Amino acid sequence: MRIRAGRHTVEISRPDKVLFPAGGTRGRTGGGTDETALTKADLAEYYRTAARRMLPHLRGRPLMLERCPDGVEGECFLQKDVPDYFPDWVHRAELAKEGGTVTHVLCDDTATLVYLAGQACVTPHRWLARADRPDCPDRLVIDLDPPGHDFAPVREAALLLRDLLDELRLPSMVMTTGSRGLHVLVPLDRRTPFDDVRAFARDLADLLAARHPDRLTTEPRKAARRGRLYLDTQRNAYAQTAVAPYAVRARPGAPVATPLSWDEVDEPELTSDRWTLTTIGSRLDHDPWQDDRTVRGRSLGPARRRLEALRTGG
Asked: How many CA atoms are closer than 13 Å to the CA of 220, on its beta-carbon side?
């Protein structure tokens, strides 16, 4: 099978290989079953179609690839280093790691996204920084991790977090993860190092949890959460990744990590796996983040001062 993508024609080997078997139950909420098996060809065609929405969120960012050569019910693995056999036209970035370097894929065009699907990369996970300034992120992310199957606490926590960010005069975006919860993201100006961003995110989460101690926690140990939703800030670090917007997850039913408008968070039927490869369809025709993507990335300096004032009651 060959797919034309821009200046390249991508060969998809074993296009009929089933990656998502029929009958898989979607997600933690029991949101239904998928009666049709999905193949590598289906995945490649989806990413070709979704590329116009995905690429603005991928270009220039190092990726970690979640590959499932035997399908999502087989063994999947995470890959950082670009294999030697990847074509020369796939862009790369060599970045420092402890004791050496890693050469990551950069997904800068549709052909690369389709090629990765052909390599059974079900999910691209992106850095929060770009390769040209890898120590300074342009995104802060907080992962809302629920304690159980009820999604209402996730929606409520997202709205509480948005209100706090509004107090700090920071813009925010929200997306389903296609897995457990929601991600809330803040655009940054790429001037603040990861350590400072992570410290800010942790203090932000601590304040929100202190305001709602019966519902929210920043305790990483599950045993200590006592049924509360976990505000996870651990992704805000060098070489850590978050699922890319519009990425398919390596889970039964092929759920898709989907950008939302804030109005949609109010909808009771919202779940993390609400949209799948076969149902996302018309959502690709519009971008709920269109206005947000034109928002200038913010400096954390003024927000840090406002946060300190809130924490100290000043």
From this structure: 5
